[in-house]
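Blinded run. Sample ID left blank on purpose so nobody reads anything into the name before looking at the predicted structure. Input follows.
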Amino acid sequence: MRINKRLSNLGFCSRRETNRLIEQNRITVNGELCKQGQWIEEEDIILIDNKPIPLKDKIYIALNKPVRITCTASKEVKNNIIHFMNYPEYIFPVGRLDKASQGLILMTNDGDLANKILESENEHEKEYIVTVNKPFDDSFMKGMSKGVEVCGAKTRPCKVSRVQEDTFRIILTQGLNKQIRRMGRAFGYTVVRLERIRIMNIKIDGIDIGKWRNLTEKEVMELRNG
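Blinded prediction complete.
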């Protein structure tokens, strides 16, 4: 893998920060100065300031993201999630939850686990409560559950159930960009409130908006085995 991904997966620093370290000639690979985007092997000896990469404790956090916060580790983006949390260690969001949506997002410095959770073919469940701009009938729920043509592809079949006349619960096993909003729009509905309440075995229960908690060892184990 590339040096940037390696350091991110180890929880040392972001890919952007890796580029900065390379520019400052602070990283060597097998005794040679590292180049931007350099490909490395598992057995390569990587030194930063002539010292081995320090091992970081793994961090696993469940955050209840408010609306208007952007899920990006790019600090130049206004209202980014890193600035919002102001966490003392390097962490990054696992996937995305669009700016207009609220709810559960996982934060970590464990790149390997993040990649496993995000891998599309693993079909991990994510659950949402969605309110649209007008009441819907049963045919809407049936159509949503069968899969919808969005962005030139049909979404995977999913589970949809009614909560109120204008609110439904949906469980997805994929994460296309703004998928639920686009699915609703295909049937003539506009999403006015979207909250993610579960990612795999992790639920948002008990976490106030804007707050977070550390995952338990059992929860992390279940994520790894999921």
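Unblinding after everyone has recorded impressions. The chain has a mean pLDDT of 94.
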